[in-house]
Predict the 3D structure of the following.
Amino acid sequence: MASVRTTGAFVAAVSISMVLFSYFLCNYRSKRKAPSPISKNKKPGNGLIHAVGNTPLIRINSLSEATCCEILGKCEFLNPGGSVKDRVAVKIIEEALESGQLVCGGVVTEGSAGSTAISLATVAPAYGCKCHVVIPDDVAIEKSQILEALGATVERVRPVSITHRDHYVNIARRRALEANELASKLRKTEKIDGKFLEQIDGCISDVEKKDSIFSSYCSGGFFADQFENLANFRAHYQGTGPEIWEQSGGSLDLFVAAAGTGGTVAGISSFLREKNPNIKCFLIDPPGSGLFNKVTRGVMYTREEAEGKRLKNPFDTITEGIGINRLTQNFKMAKLDGAYRGTDKEAVEMSRYLLKNDGLFLGSSSAMNCVGAVRVAQSLGPGHTIVTILCDSGTRHLSKFYDAQYLSEHGLTPTATGLEFLGI
């Protein structure tokens, strides 16, 4: 009898266990199948342009721990074109299309050290436009290769002063005029003939177009003018700045970045200072640039530089895309509390340190920005939250900034094991 009771109890226990197991299994499966609120509400973006912006803000662990500050980097290298300039390219093209200065099928021209050109070449096709860029012939060759792969027309020219008619920016401006002249000539031909005589695919015949580099660009040109076009400033005032504010929860103390056109540092600093006047904004300036003197002394050059000791080529630095010796309309909008100098060697060392300790493979301007973040942390002490911009990755800096032979020839071979190059 006891045996029967024992067997019955065992069967009952097994049955209850199976019921409970089935309940939990079904519940688990139902939870797995149920879509999360995020996946249910998230809609696909509308094309490439939707992917520009809203980049992550991350903690740079090694620098934060070394300085006892929270150092945060805005990962602009995750934009579809690979840099912070994607935002500028989108804003410039959209405003030009809205104003009628650029039409679908037209060509956007720009003078650039690389990043803005690549961004324009990336996003222009999404607007039905083409891209023609003029770049200095001393920038990393992979930038030209990327541009050509993107379908842009590339002119590489020797670096000269901005006052020279053949400065890359001035040439780009002329190219837009040439494209407009060609488009105007085409329209006149159509008006006179009343039909597309001697035209192929909407363009004038080879006889008429043989002397023009814009043989296939017949809808006119538009000079992006990233240095003076305030769409550059607006891209960061309306986009990057608000993102930083939201992602940091408004709890940041300092912002620091280098300047080329000045749009990034101006747009972000202006927005952040409006949100909280107590946020301090700083410039980090590379070799050969006059912006440090302008911010700290109110003049572009020191007395020694004015006496002819200044570098012949103001861009004689390994940090491409930052540093300038004139005031742009964009930079004039910046709200800065001070400036720091950085060196090429510090940028090189910083890039290797971040790669080794954080897995961050960054370009030269990004590395210089991180040098600036540490400089600010050292000056103002621990306990602050500092934000900077990680402009692009190292993939477009392989032939110079990451080339051992090039660095050796210029005395820039990295040797540091830690942050001793910044006194830490």
User: Anything to note?
Assistant: The longest strand covers residues 130-136.
